[in-house]
Amino acid sequence: MGQHADQAGDNRAAGEERYRTFAAFYPFYLSEHLNRTSRRLHVVGTGLVIVSLVMGFTVSPWFFLVAPLVGYGFAWVGHFVFEKNRPATFSYPLYSLMGDFRLFFETVAARRPW
Questions:
Q1: Residue 34 located in a structural domain
Q2: Is the pLDDT assigned to residue 6 strictly greater than 80?
Q3: What Pfam family is a match for this entry (predicted)?
Q4: 103 contacts 46 by C-beta, under 8 angstroms
Q5: What is the value of pTM for the model shown?
Q6: For an engineered disulfide with 112, which of 11, 42, 73, 106 has Cβ 3.0 to 4.6 Å away?
């Protein structure tokens, strides 16, 4: 990883600096998703979250319970197995969720490599 990612990781672990905006957080988010397989797992997991939410509204509310399990399941396998890092969800839950959806839509729109 680059110096920015190492520095951000050190700051996050020490609790010295918090990201105050999503715009400031997103470059760090991308630095934590350098592995192609991990990014793919995130995109698939987020896609399944969207499907689960739609199914929750149209088929059964039980699908709402499936959404976070599927999303985090795929993402955390990506982090623990392929990235070998700690998911940002633990320190930045909202920004991390926003990052997952932005990465998903950028990938689907071919603005980021699959």
A1: yes
A2: no
A3: Mpo1-like
A4: yes
A5: 0.82
A6: 106
Report residue 13 as tokens: 């672990």
Is 100 part of a structural domain of the chain?
yes
Please indicate, yes or no, if residue 90 is contained in any of the structural domains: yes
Q: Give per-residue burial for 10-30: e unless 16+ CB within 10 Å, then b.
A: eebeeeeeebeeeeebbebbb
Taking phi over 0 as left and psi of -120 to 50 as alpha, with beta for the rest, 112 belongs to: beta
Of 50, 48, 29, residue with least CA distance to 39 = 29
Per-residue confidence (pLDDT) for residue 68, from 0 to 100: 96
What is the tally of structural domains in the chain? 1
Which domain range does residue 38 map to?
3-108
* Mean pLDDT computed over 89-110: 97
